Amino acid sequence: MQSQLTPAHYLDDSIFAREQERIFRKLWIFVGLQGLLSEPDAYLTRTIGGIPLVVQNCAGVLKAFVNQCAHRQMPLMFEAYGQGRLACKYHGWVYDAEGAVKTIPHADSLYQYPDAVRAGLCLKQFAVQTVGQLVFVNLDDTPLPITEQFSPSLLAQLEGISVHFSPQVIHATMPVRYNWKLNFENVLDSNHVAYVHPSTFRPLLDKRPPSVSAPAPDASALAETRLVDLSFSSHMPMAIAPMPWHALVDRYVDTAPADSYYNFFLYPNINFISVGGLVFLVQQFNPLAPDRTEVAFHLMTAQEQQRIPALPAILWGHLKGETRVFEEDRALLEELQSHMHAGAARAEHGAYEALLQRVAAVYLRLMGDAA
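Above: the chain's sequence. Below: its structure in token form.
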């Protein structure tokens, strides 16, 4: 079966612009971890769908605003993470917890805004939803219920596992030269592991080859695939070498064997994994251009039962291992992107790639291109 997506879906600027509008400005998008926003006025900044955002702890409530002063559009916050009031460094405008202008220096002498105009000076606000330690934002004026994107059972799983996160988090961002969809398709493809990661990732997993339990979907099955079906969890046995620090953390254990590799696929651009409930990694594929993506890593261990002096070194060691695996994927995906060209044939999919067909079907529906 041929892919439903053409090379243009990975190359075309106009298609990329529609993705920003119809996917990233419509769906719930992960922005960060709640533990990093626990202090008063703690904030993080992100760009979603081309729109700059600041998410801030406003008197104990997480709120998301456009990260642009209403005066001259200067960003209010420059750093990825920080702590400070909503104030513009350019001309000193200060905003309250609702995003309304609180003070304007020399308002009467310099600006002379009528009361009706001043009342309308505010930051656009967006919907925020927390799922355990995971924070999501939706940019739409009428956001869809989050349960239409992630099932209640999946949300419960995410809440249950994320409460085990340690507050110590290591972050990394990596610019790559390929389309964001290639990364999501890649993490859904278990068949590539034996060929791309034979000495890094593959030896840790079940050695049995992947199998197909259902036939490839026909047109009717694709039409019935829902947005909520694209996000799900899985687990598989994993060989985890015991380390002394494992006994010092509050390990997450599900109904799966303790030594399992947990995998959460959250459409459109998150792969959240856990190594045995001991280490957690959130990977996010942020689109920058048709052929450019920023991959963001958020890595932490399970919460410590007592202080672990070596924890920073443990985090760096795990990040090094994760980035080694990632670099193996990156090398191939950048080659794949660089050889795409307009007018080329569509990719061929086998039965095991049924999920890629389902993802493409919902993607085309969201884009307004479904037949």
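The first strand starts at residue 29 and ends at 33.
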